Amino acid sequence: MTHVVVTDIVRADLEIARALAEFGSATVHEALGRAGYAGPRIRPIQQGVRISGTAVTVQAAPGDNLMVHAAIEQAHDGDVIVVVPTTESPFGFIGDLMATQMQRRGVRGYVTSGGVRDSQELRAMGFPAWTAEVSAQGTVKDTAGSVNVPIVLGGAVVEPGDIVVADDDGVTIVPRERAAEALEASQARAAKEAANRVRFEAGEISMDLNNLRPVLADLGVQYVTQAEFEETHDRR
Amino acid sequence: MTHVVVTDIVRADLEIARALAEFGSATVHEALGRAGYAGPRIRPIQQGVRISGTAVTVQAAPGDNLMVHAAIEQAHDGDVIVVVPTTESPFGFIGDLMATQMQRRGVRGYVTSGGVRDSQELRAMGFPAWTAEVSAQGTVKDTAGSVNVPIVLGGAVVEPGDIVVADDDGVTIVPRERAAEALEASQARAAKEAANRVRFEAGEISMDLNNLRPVLADLGVQYVTQAEFEETHDRR
Amino acid sequence: MTHVVVTDIVRADLEIARALAEFGSATVHEALGRAGYAGPRIRPIQQGVRISGTAVTVQAAPGDNLMVHAAIEQAHDGDVIVVVPTTESPFGFIGDLMATQMQRRGVRGYVTSGGVRDSQELRAMGFPAWTAEVSAQGTVKDTAGSVNVPIVLGGAVVEPGDIVVADDDGVTIVPRERAAEALEASQARAAKEAANRVRFEAGEISMDLNNLRPVLADLGVQYVTQAEFEETHDRR
Amino acid sequence: MTHVVVTDIVRADLEIARALAEFGSATVHEALGRAGYAGPRIRPIQQGVRISGTAVTVQAAPGDNLMVHAAIEQAHDGDVIVVVPTTESPFGFIGDLMATQMQRRGVRGYVTSGGVRDSQELRAMGFPAWTAEVSAQGTVKDTAGSVNVPIVLGGAVVEPGDIVVADDDGVTIVPRERAAEALEASQARAAKEAANRVRFEAGEISMDLNNLRPVLADLGVQYVTQAEFEETHDRR
Amino acid sequence: MTHVVVTDIVRADLEIARALAEFGSATVHEALGRAGYAGPRIRPIQQGVRISGTAVTVQAAPGDNLMVHAAIEQAHDGDVIVVVPTTESPFGFIGDLMATQMQRRGVRGYVTSGGVRDSQELRAMGFPAWTAEVSAQGTVKDTAGSVNVPIVLGGAVVEPGDIVVADDDGVTIVPRERAAEALEASQARAAKEAANRVRFEAGEISMDLNNLRPVLADLGVQYVTQAEFEETHDRR
Amino acid sequence: MTHVVVTDIVRADLEIARALAEFGSATVHEALGRAGYAGPRIRPIQQGVRISGTAVTVQAAPGDNLMVHAAIEQAHDGDVIVVVPTTESPFGFIGDLMATQMQRRGVRGYVTSGGVRDSQELRAMGFPAWTAEVSAQGTVKDTAGSVNVPIVLGGAVVEPGDIVVADDDGVTIVPRERAAEALEASQARAAKEAANRVRFEAGEISMDLNNLRPVLADLGVQYVTQAEFEETHDRR
């Protein structure tokens, strides 16, 4: 297997990449037709931060951050660096020194199915990270990997230049060629949700708004009293 | 299997349900004779919030929140909605729109062995949740389940109308018919702990207060010097 | 097996033990030659707290905190109590009453591969803890164990008197006899990192500072354009 | 909390308890309306063994098998001993000596969310076990628990005298008062499956037998060619 | 999101698909340049079976096997059905009745990140399966999904028509367009390994055959006596 | 950190090392006073094999088997190679080629908290392995580690030359200096168990043999009828 660093990737439209942060990982995931969510194992180390940006991808050896160094050189303003070790790897692949380099280059955040260290410092310097593990365990710089090749992050495929949307609910990946569609659908969804929120605050409920009574009836769900329930159901 | 929504459940005494919040999940669990704790997998998404209320229970299909919508209609002021999917199910079963409906009806919180989404918004709106997972993954509304039937939440059985006590240590379930006993025992326990706390702050230790020296002696635990230890113990 | 409480352990130099807190678990772990880290399963219940101290060790039965009571009596100002149940044991081995005793005796923190309860109170009283689990589940006081014998905490061996360094990244153990070496190496490492941080903030990158280009070349990593990549690589 | 050994439990009908073994855990679980399955964490230590019997239940302290000794004395011919420690507890609660006692009394098998040891000997002596863990770790006999009280095994409630059905797919619990219903429904289900099996072996498929085409159509699932798919779907 | 069943997928060359079974998941994974392995969570339910075939892919809702029924109709002789629920889903998605249909159509095996039931029957009828879970838990047929779209199985992307190689070590996916390359590289690797095996059986070791002494020397690994080790290394 | 290969380790007495295999991991663990068990995560890939031997230890980088090659050269007849990666590492560190070398040198088995591959071949060639993972994932040979230094395997410390006892229950480590004590205690324990087994087969039970009735009485466990139980206990 040849390992490569791809140097001239095409990024998603920067305006769209920026605009998606407003909607967050859950709304954008819905807007894509319930796709692109990387799963609940990738968690933020901070609270209340919502970012988006274009992916610089890294395939790393477990416990080896050599290729992350190489990725920093390829990163531009507005990027998010996404690092996937070949297997689960609870190491601190980056700490505050690497975060300093990333922040200096305009990188908006770091996402990994491996781990990070110096979590207190990262929070203090305002550099957000989403990670499977926080770990002080140190890495080496001995093994080849690749930068800007397609990777699998949890349940999502990430190609270089895709959009990464991350917040307290985790990380959603928007394929580059679906960026415009995702933004439009997110805006539509947010508008509809805002309208519904007003009605819910006024006391309406989704059973009516979403017309769920016929669904329950079709599925044979019965409304019964406690007495009726105990008559027809034995214990458990 | 017939799926049902039970519409007229008997709730535990509301005054007691409210009063138990003060003591928290650990003290109430102890007061029940070390029972009712749902286990450490059900975690709060916020910090420093302590609630209690009466359970509206939901048995849901994994990744399907249809029955949670039905449960909201059955919920009263002072309730806690408790949702158990048939198996582990890291989906965002509810987000801020459903929380808005719950909050509007006076529901005090949401407890689940599944997952929630919009965690940042839930914290912002002050609607507390305890959950096995935070996940942006969206659900469907396709499959029947039941509302207000007995369910198993982690290691605890929850019957509709039972009391739910939840805080930073997790969730404890108080059977409806043990509510008064739980309150009385919690008060007694808290009083005793307050008295002990004063003595511990003054420098006494539990070895004396709890009379543990004879216990250790009975079990054959020996007090030795490092030199004696090394003489009689090989490595490890 | 005889169970013992060793009463006169030799502690690491107190000045050094105190001084190591400044550097944190990751730096000290690196300073030891990437050793001593207890692993990512032992997590803080609070954020932004950094401590160090000398270990009082406890080998406990699962779900039984008898020996923790015994350990408190052996603890001095500047100690950290480290408790390892024989197997994974998600119980609340200590709560605010035991923390009160520890705090009164000058114990700086509590570290365990078991669990703690009253997490909200522990945070409120400023007594820091690192733990595998937060759990309201109560323990008994029935089973013998030992105090101040060697234990295995995650991936690290802890001997009584060793130094415990704990912060948001987890827990690192410094063998007593390596204390001076660890401090010196931590200081050197911190100084070097500070110098590098200045250069990174000025725009330099680790690819240059760490001279990583020859490493990549030696490993055969190739820099290619997207077009070259697609020519030579099939999908995936 | 008072700990008890209940000495005169009512067992499910022995003939029915025996007859259910033939159908296995999956069919019986379906026959109960998809209920009673203890979940996939409780696994057999042997292959190809299918048993059923009446439950003698044990609530044990973690790592403490005292109450299992007490349960053996309460066990009759045709029973299955079911042991649930208060929390996950990967100890060898029983080995071949305890299995010898059980086998001598006609106990048909052992089920636990804790662990067993001497797994090779258990297989050799033909005493089947279902367990969350195989572990050589030894237990103590120090802590009170209860025999023949209701317990929670994985996702299932077990009351003493309930029927336990166990095979390579795991363990299903049949409430005592649903025993006759479970047998009848299992027989009906097995008969229907046998008829379907003949038709499937002859080449028919469930899309036709179960009339699933309208279901797919109602859900809006579209049959498309690869060319149509690529036209309308972007990558992913 | 539109759900689809793609009806005319292009499959990898059948001769190659068949030929790869001989080499097994580990060798083929190596032959692809250490790629395509689905990870250690997908395990065989039988021992000593090695298969390969072309993928019919299924994206299913958790706990819902509707789309597996649809996939069976699309399956040909020589296929392997690969089913990925949207999230972890420990249900028995298929049992012996569905396996009967698959076997009748020439399907060589079943691979899933969900679960299977009737594991004893599947082994008895010689229909092999690789799965994350064995579970008696029953599924429903209520929710839309897709057949023959790209899916993510553990760490591997599977496109319809790709080759699936499965044995006791797990599952490796060969992209359709790399089939010939994979076969050729597997044959070369197997030949080389056979030659080395002869030399190893004769007493040679890989330190010599692979010329590893200079690698160790370059990395600074030192050969020392126990006495030298103890002189230069403190405890741990 | 200097990495070393220690070349002249002192091994435990070979006769004792061999003799301990007969007793198995559970009995020897008990004989050591319930010590030395590596925990339930390290599982055999075969069934019914019981070995013992002297440890050659390896500290490896995750996903890197370089030091295992170095360890083979240090291994003698009667050794067991024990490999611990710095963190959890589900890779196939060894396969049949490395097992061939080990077997040729008289190595009795392989134990690891990482992973193995070619599991079918290892079983076929009769080379036993105990491992946390079976994985086809390939390793590299890039990173330094050490051979014959102390390591932590699950919950047990292993020093080079210690005795490794492994069977279907997992792996127990006997410190070299406790070898004679372990053998003697194992023999005594086995003799006692044999005597008890005869009495259990004759119908006696451990409640009598172990004199457990007073223990239960002291702990306050009460024998009650079902009627008494229901009178004094509310639900749950």
Give a structural overview.
The structure is a homohexamer of 236-residue chains. Chain A is an alpha/beta fold and 236 residues long. Chain A is built from 9 helices and 12 strands. In chain A, strands 2, 3, 4, 5, 6, 7, 10 and 11 form an 8-stranded mixed beta sheet that branches. The first copy, chain A, is elongated, with a radius of gyration of 22 Å. The model of chain A has no long low-confidence stretch (mean pLDDT 95). Chains in contact: A-B, A-C, A-D, A-E, A-F, B-C, B-D, B-E, B-F, C-D, C-E, C-F, D-E, D-F, E-F.
SSE layout:
The structure is a homohexamer of 236-residue chains.
Chain A: E1 4-6, H1 14-19, H2 24-31, E2 43-44, E3 51-60, H3 66-74, E4 79-85, H4 96-104, E5 109-116, H5 119-125, E6 129-134, E7 146-147, E8 151-153, E9 156-158, E10 163-167, E11 170-174, H6 179-201, H7 206-209, H8 213-218, E12 222-224, H9 226-232
Helix pairs in contact in A: 2-6
Summarize the structure.
The structure is a homohexamer of 236-residue chains. By secondary structure, chain A is of the alpha/beta class.
Which characteristics define this entry?
homohexamer; 236 residues; alpha/beta; Glucose Oxidase, domain 1; 2 domains; 8-stranded mixed beta sheet; two-stranded antiparallel sheet
Unreliable residue stretches of chain A: none
CATH architecture of the largest domain in chain A: 3-Layer(bba) Sandwich
Give the helix tally of chain A.
9
Q: Percentage of helical residues of chain A? A: 25-40%
Rg of chain A from C-alpha positions?
A: 22 Å
CATH class of the largest domain in chain A: Alpha Beta
Largest interface, C-beta closer than 8 angstroms, per-chain residues: A-B, 43 and 44 residues
Biggest sheet features of chain A: 8 strands, mixed
The overall pLDDT average of chain A reads 95
| Oligomer kind | homohexamer
The 3D shape of chain A can be described as elongated
Structural class by SSE content of chain A: alpha/beta
